[in-house]
Amino acid sequence: MVSTTxxxxxxxxxxxxxxxxxxxxxxxxxxxxxxxxEELLRxxxxxxxxxxxxxxxxxxxxxxxxxxxxxxxxxPQTTLSTAAIFFNRFVMRNSLKARPGYKxxxxxxxxxxxxxxxxxxxxxxxxxxxxVIACVRVALKDPNKLVDEQTKDFWKWRDTILYSEDVILExxxxxxxxxxxxxxxxxxxxxxxxxxxxxxxxAAWAFLSDSLLTPLCLLFTSRTIAAASLYAAAxxxxxxxxxxxxxxxxxxxxxxxxxxxxxxxxxxxxxxHSAAKDGEASxxxxxxxxxxxxxxxxxxxxxxxxxxxxxxxxxxxxxLSEEGELDx
Length: 328
Hints:
This protein is mainly alpha-helical. The chain is about 50% helix and about 0% strand. It is built from 13 helices and no strands.
């Protein structure tokens, strides 16, 4: 009989690698796409006579189109986030309002092409036929619509996407490097060892999902949006994140508390009165806070000894690959 020796489990503590600041090249590239709130009121569409509210609704319709098509194609949130960023950046440089001698692309056309680009950038490619069929069904609000190479709608959408691809690439100056905020959030949850706290994780994910329907990606970096979602979730769930060496957690992530609070306040303005799911209070209720006031006694900014234990939850490695698992 051959005996088998079972080694004792390794109890050596796992050392965490401190987050690194974003590379200067990445920061410089992202900053050209960050605007002020005043600049968002002077977009090409608004200059051409579209009201700010109408422009916001048009953006929202375009991104919602991306989300619906993405769900039909079972694309991960990272890909949908990248597509939404491409869409919003395009609208900052092109008008959506027709004028003599100028016929703009429809928001659905821009959205479909932005999603097509995002699937290639994030390496979640789908066949052109699948993308076109999904776009037609969402545009016509008929999920069972028969679409194939024998229908006019198929070729119209296919040609539109292929033509618009060059237009969007030129508008974006072929700058397709995007750090999806969902990925940044995932790394933050892992770093603070709260990725298995399902309630906290879902609240943060809900904030990010809602942010896709807003121009938040034009006001803040992806890392700031991810940190704001974690901050909002921590306040909603009364969770306390650990400090390190006297530094609050947001400084460890190289994010400004003022920017975090600005992002949270803007989201509260938009979603505070939205209906919450599962009978719980909305994550945005009571989220507002003074941007320049530092308080170290509020949830999301406390000491290591006060950090909560992990609770059972889904495997976080699956979060970035399963569409819609953590919505709300």
